[in-house]
Design goal:
Helix content: over 70%
Largest sheet: none
Number of domains: 1
Shape: globular
Number of strands: 0
CATH superfamily: MetI-like
Radius of gyration: 23 Å
CATH topology: MetI-like fold
Structural class: mainly alpha
Distance between the termini: 43 Å
Strand content: under 5%
Order of helices and strands: HHHHHHHHHHHHH
């Protein structure tokens, strides 16, 4: 009897999880299938989930335009560079706060935490003026620096917690064997904190890939702007090419889905592990 109740409880739980999963994935599935429809079918009534006529016209239209290929290339370049900056600087800062006696360490850590509370919208004008003054307007560098700045506070806190959990004797043994402190950090300590490092890298990549506001105001065209700006450009004043919008959306979220599918265990363990000292 108890076994039957347990089996029924699991059945109900799995059923609810399946229903919630379908509800969350349905918009993505519908958009993916709609991207293969002719434009006239998108507004057909009654609507259908599967296309009556399958076509790759929208994909051909987007992928044949150098402008949109450039948007995707820019997004990859900015995201990869921002990830590298966040992982490197976050590891160095987190390690420093974890291992060295820094004056007013608690005050510094509190200040870093406060930086996470600033909404980006109040920094638009200062960043715009700074980019103009430093001749960084419409460059990769300014976008990488801004994307990194919004992730670094969390990265430092997260990695410091991971480094705190690793015994000091491990790096001391590495330095006795001939490693410098920097080599010990990147080749001994960082691999032990792999979950936290990967989680920081994923957060930095996703932040840079999805960033729109600063990319819009700090670039002036497809030369340096990421795909988020290119997607917004498809919404015209009097018309919207919905096929193209759906195609760009699918091509934009595909890398994020791949990253999440293969690295989700590192995301979960990195966030939960960094939350416990």
């Amino acid at each position: 009897m108890r076994a039957n109740k347990r089996l029924l409880g699991r059945f109900i739980l799995y059923g609810l999880v399946a229903i919630v999963t379908v509800l969350f994935l349905f918009p993505i599935l519908f958009a993916m299938l709609a991207s293969f429809k002719p434009n006239r079918e998108i507004f057909a009534y009654p609507p259908s989930i599967f296309p009556h006529t399958w076509t790759l016209e929208a994909y051909t239209f987007i992928l044949s335009q150098k402008k949109y290929l450039r948007y995707f290339l820019n997004a990859w370049v900015i995201s990869i560079l921002a990830t590298f900056v966040c992982v490197t600087l976050g590891s160095l800062a987190g390690y420093g706060f974890s291992r060295f006696k820094v004056p007013a360490k608690r005050l510094f850590m509190l200040g870093i935490l406060i930086l996470m509370m600033f909404p980006g919208v109040i920094l638009m004008i200062p960043y715009f003026r700074l980019a103009r003054a430093l001749n960084l307007y419409d460059t990769y560098l300014i976008l990488v620096l801004i994307d990194s700045a919004f992730v670094l506070p969390l990265a430092i806190w997260l990695l410091k917690s991971f480094f705190d959990s690793i015994p000091v004797e491990v790096e001391e043994a590495a330095m006795v064997d001939g490693c410098t402190r920097i080599k010990a950090l990147f080749f001994v300590i960082a691999p032990l904190a792999r979950a936290g490092v990967i989680a920081v890298g994923i957060m930095a990549f996703l932040k840079a890939w999805n960033e729109f506001m600063f990319a819009l105001i700090l670039t002036k065209g497809a030369e340096k702007a990421p795909i988020s700006v290119g997607l917004a450009g498809l919404f015209q004043a009097y018309s919207v090419n919905w096929n193209a919008v759906l195609v760009v959306t699918m091509l934009s979220i595909f890398p994020l889905m791949i990253i999440f599918i293969f690295l989700q265990r590192y995301i979960i363990s990195g966030i939960t592990g960094g939350a416990v000292k």
